[in-house]
Amino acid sequence: MNLSLTTIEDIPLIHSGDDLSGIIAEKTLAQKIVPQNGDIFVVAQKIVSKAEGRMVNLTTVHPSIEALHLAEVTGKDARMVELVLQESNCVVRTAPNTLIVEHKCGFISANAGIDHSNVHGEWGNEADWVLLLPKDPDHSAAVIRQELEERFQCRLGVLIIDSHGRAWRNGTVGTSIGLSGLPGLVDLRGTEDLFGFHLKITQVAAADELAAGASLLMGQAAEKTPVIFVRGFPYELREGELKELIRAKEHDLFR
Asked: Which of 158, 211, 214, 223 is least surrounded by Cβ atoms within 10 Å, i.e. has the fewest?
């Protein structure tokens, strides 16, 4: 088995309305990479959000009473808190400088994934600009996949990832927030191990494992490598969606 992850170089700064799949295809071919059946493109959430026009200037946001209250509890900008509330189903935990929520897509994250880093607005104070996650990351992945498949005439997968913290562990790790054409979860229950025992519980978060690996190459600061080309993914491609990876609330022991 051989798994290779390759950064797609020279991706330009992305702006609202840019043809993201076209840019990815152009830069892939410029590296003399010719995609084939089973290959996967891992794409950073940030450039998807930018292409979809998900930037917001905080001066346009009017905090609700709930946002003002949570701003006092957390010490965060009430306008930022208001955006977090708008992007969330519910608040899970609060503490000074901490606001953990259930995003509308179902996953748990800090600040609903809203971010200041590597965000540059076209007017006003740069510090007032923030970037929201894509409205429907699975749909975003499906659109990019369809367009790349049409360009390359082969069966591909597309994974959109973000950096999330984890309960009980320090540091962030690359995590899937949208996918198309690859499994989120691989069910190994019933598979025999080396000694003939049948696995009873094991399900592999294959998309998240790939997201973590790709995130190593993407980096978190000024690396400018938001697209990773993957060949050799060890599981068969199929239609997949984020909800495979979201634990049902009745089985969630950590809230």
From this structure: 223
Q: What is the pTM of this model?
A: 0.93
Tell me what pLDDT residue 223 has.
Answer: 65
Q: pLDDT, tens digit, for every residue of 226-246? A: 999 999 999 999 999 999 999
Concatenate the DSSP letters of all residues of the chain into one string: ---EEEE---PPPP-TT--HHHHHHHHHHHTT----TT-EEEEEHHHHHHHTT-EEEGGG----HHHHHHHHHH---HHHHHHHHHTEEEEEEEETTEEEEEETTS-EEEGGG-B-TT---SSS-GGGEEEPPPS-HHHHHHHHHHHHHHHHTS--EEEEEEEEEETTEEEEEEEEEEEESS-S-EE-TT-B-TTSPBPSS-EE-HHHHHHHHHHHHH-SSS----EEEEE--SS------GGGGSPPGGG----
CATH number at residue 29: 3.30.1330.100
Boundaries of domain holding 237: 4-52+136-244
pLDDT band at residue 195 using 50, 70 and 90 as cut-offs: confident
Domain count, the chain: 2
Q: Is residue 95 one of the residues assigned to a domain?
A: yes
